[in-house]
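Example 9 (inverse folding). The structure is encoded as follows.
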């Protein structure tokens, strides 16, 4: 007897997600509002492919000795390594460099798309996720950085997040470089230790001052003890060095601490230049009406990527949410960016200033769901035209009804299953949340009539016997009516308008 073959097991790859219709609509709604802000600022769309040659992605994430480290890579037929992009900035740098003689500078552009990370997935950490970026290439002054911060603030407010529930925090890598010089970590020989310090500071929100202090020193055990997790090596700074770094990132009022900060980095020309740029950004955004509750100078902002060379900024949401441990925590960052003047130079050999930011689409959508700011529940399910007779002539009549509804701007579909079991058609309509079912059998056809079944009203009437507090403002309507064929469109429009009014009054608590 032949062995029955095993069925293939359907399984979703770890770190990837399937997206539902509501998620897709919510994303489209959110991105349309963001896009409108970018367009208002004079930015234009551009799109690059998901694959780039691995060496073009740069030295910052892919390890050239291990082409699959951190990214998903394949070899071309000419043995060149290609990788799925890990962000949208490196491909933009390649695009600008390749077309630099044709592109009008400053080049103000935005783009959205999926990026990929070949990393271990975990809670809230995915291998594929969407970003929405905006960049200004060829704009050297801090006024371009200030504009980016203002555009981030406007985009967040366009999504319905009010002032007081977000802040754009701004720092400057040059100031941080000055602090590094002040603690003896200047020069190329200390590049790795500087990066360790940056990563430690970036964990301030997660681990607090005590945890960052450990990471600046000898290191930190996950969970606080050897038996609770892995050990992370620290930067190896001494107490005096740690105190200077913590003073810098602990500044909460920049204007009051400016003198002490200036004294700390007095010997650093680069650091002093960073302070001047920060002051200029602060002055520009204030002149445009952006107060400190919207855009704030904050020395604790680091941003993890090494290619930032000047201003860095981060969009943080300030309202509380409950995490997976049941704890109340602040929602935190939903995007950020900064100035990266050296990235394009890798290709062109000449300085091309650039600044930009990236919004984490999935994370921002989660925030909007928490605030109940997504209106995807307003999408009306299609009207269902049922099938009472399956011959070609009858199907043609039903199909014409569907097309007439669609041409009138009404979502509609004809039932495509086994038409002989009419009860299954209504069950299908119920599962699809269809508001209306159109019914025409042979008797109705001979009389030139159509039955319209109001599925929403029918469900309401069915619940009245158990719902003693049923809504009183809505006059009882028949759950099914008979109309003339010529009145189909007007009758469906009227019924859908009544449903919309019902939803509005329910939302108002009438």
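The amino acid assigned to each position is listed next.
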């Amino acid at each position: 007897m032949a062995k029955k073959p095993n069925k293939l097991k359907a399984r979703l790859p770890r770190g990837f997600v399937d997206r539902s219709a509501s998620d897709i609509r919510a994303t489209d709604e959110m991105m349309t509002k963001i896009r409108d802000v970018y367009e208002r600022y004079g930015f234009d769309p551009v799109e690059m492919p998901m694959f780039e040659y691995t060496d073009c992605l740069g030295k910052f994430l892919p390890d050239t000795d291990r082409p699959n480290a951190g990214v998903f890579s394949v070899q071309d037929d000419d043995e060149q390594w290609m990788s799925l992009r890990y962000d949208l900035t490196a491909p933009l740098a390649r695009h600008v460099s390749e077309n630099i003689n044709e592109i009008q500078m400053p080049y103000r552009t935005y783009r959205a798309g999926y990026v990929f990370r070949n990393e271990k997935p975990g809670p809230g950490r995915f291998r594929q996720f969407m970003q929405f970026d905006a960049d200004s290439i060829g704009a050297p002054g801090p006024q371009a950085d200030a504009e980016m911060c203002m555009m981030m603030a406007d985009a967040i407010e366009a999504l319905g997040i009010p002032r007081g529930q977000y802040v754009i925090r701004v720092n400057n890598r040059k100031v941080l470089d000055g602090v590094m010089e002040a603690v003896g970590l200047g020069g190329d020989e200390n590049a790795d230790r500087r990066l360790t310090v940056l990563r430690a500071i970036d964990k301030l929100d997660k681990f607090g001052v005590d945890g960052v202090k450990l990471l600046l020193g000898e290191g930190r055990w996950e969970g606080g003890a050897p038996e609770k997790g892995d050990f992370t090596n620290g930067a190896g700074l001494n107490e005096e060095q740690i105190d200077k770094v913590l003073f810098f990132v602990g500044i909460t009022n920049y204007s009051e601490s400016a003198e002490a900060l200036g004294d700390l980095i007095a010997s650093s020309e680069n650091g002093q230049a960073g302070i001047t740029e920060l002051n200029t950004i602060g002055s520009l955004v204030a002149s445009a009406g952006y107060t400190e509750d919207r855009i704030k100078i904050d020395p604790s902002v680091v941003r993890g990527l090494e290619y930032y060379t000047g201003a860095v900024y981060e969009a943080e949401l300030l309202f509380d949410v409950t995490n997976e441990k049941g704890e109340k925590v602040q929602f935190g960052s939903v995007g950020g960016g900064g100035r990266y003047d050296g990235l394009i130079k890798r290709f062109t050999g000449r300085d091309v200033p650039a600044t930009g930011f990236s919004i984490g689409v999935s994370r921002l959508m989660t925030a909007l769901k928490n605030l109940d700011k997504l209106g995807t529940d307003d999408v009306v399910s299609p009207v269902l035209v049922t099938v009472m007779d399956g011959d070609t002539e009858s199907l043609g009549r039903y199909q014409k009804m569907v097309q007439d509804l669609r041409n009138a701007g009404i979502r509609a579909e004809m039932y495509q299953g086994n038409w002989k079991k009419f009860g299954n058609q209504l069950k299908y309509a119920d599962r699809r949340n269809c508001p209306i079912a159109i019914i025409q059998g042979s008797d109705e056809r001979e009389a030139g009539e159509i039955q319209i079944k109001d599925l929403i009203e029918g469900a309401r009437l069915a619940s009245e016997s158990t719902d003693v507090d049923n809504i009183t403002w809505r006059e009882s309507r028949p759950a099914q009516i008979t109309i003339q064929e010529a009145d189909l469109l007007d009758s469906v429009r009227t019924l859908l308008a009544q449903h919309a009014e019902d939803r509005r009054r329910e939302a108002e608590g009438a």
